[in-house]
Specification:
By secondary structure, the protein is of the alpha/beta class. The protein is built from eleven helices and twelve strands. It has helices at residues 48-55, 62-86, 134-138, 148-154, 187-196, 215-222, 237-249, 255-273, 291-300, 311-330, 338-341; strands at residues 5-13, 20-30, 33-44, 94-105, 110-114, 128-130, 160-164, 167-174, 177-185, 279-284, 304-307, 351-352.
Length: 353
Amino acid sequence: MNLKNIKILGIMSGTSLDGVDFAVVNFCQIDNKWNFEIFQSATYEYPENWFKKLKFAAKLPSEELNQLNKEYTLYLNSLIHKFISDFKVVDLDAIASHGHTILHNPKAGYTLQIGNLPEIKNGFTIPIVCDFRVQDVKLGGQGAPLVPIGDRFLFSEYDFCLNLGGFSNISFEENANRIAFDISPVNTILNFYANKLGLEYDNRGEIASTGFVHSDLLIELNSNSYFTKKHPKSLGIEFVFEEVLPIIESYKLDIKDILATYTEHIAIQIENQLINKFGKMIITGGGAFNSYLLSRIKHHNHNIKIEIPNSEIINYKEALIFAFLGLLKLNNSINVLASVTGAKQDHSSGVVF
């Protein structure tokens, strides 16, 4: 296998439960610079039964969660075969899969991404790299975010890389180190309330744009102690259920006002990370399609030139970068940065089947 010119299928399932993202990427290293090209990409939405299983999986007892892990690994394996068949993918050198995060509490020493059991290899003869986060937590790190290694090597023309997915996270260089951390929940909250209206999501933020910002709720959301913590830091779905939703629900507001207020909260927390900073920022993730959210981010960040890439990069940047993490792992190269996660050392993470 030529690790300087390699074709990898990257797979990602995010906390916003949009579905499973697939991206076939060719990586080529020329003069120590990595170039990439996405050949095929697609998202397979979760059917209703899997959406419900994953949405409430964090509350399952361990025995049921172990069973879910087995079932999800087989389900993910079937989706991989389907994608390869649907898009007639040939000449793959490897597959790199993130799995789906169910539990993430690095302070307590654990993180769980289901779908990373050996059965994911069923029917394949090429290497499969997966389970990228556990090793970092064992080394004292947050296990997240892992995407910044890709930001450094694949998107170096940007001063800041902001992702608006289930959570917002940001990545940038500071004193010759890559710095990155989760900022706040985003689509985990916005989609939760859109679902209550029978919608998959608030299209372009149109409902939020008609609501009123409730100042007391906004103040309380902004007062959470997480926002004053120094990086490295990361968020899991537990934060949403235990600390955010109870606050919002206590106010008994119309959903449009909740969406308006929470959108403002997201924008303010991003602003707080960019105070006195200048440069160019790329925004990716599903939130990049939320026009109202983008307008509020721009309103709060006049010193930052914001760029929205093409829809393929918006939708598949994480799948692309997990393919890159898989490449680095196969090469025994560093793919997790201690400056980002707080681990004891840089390391090459992931399990290879």
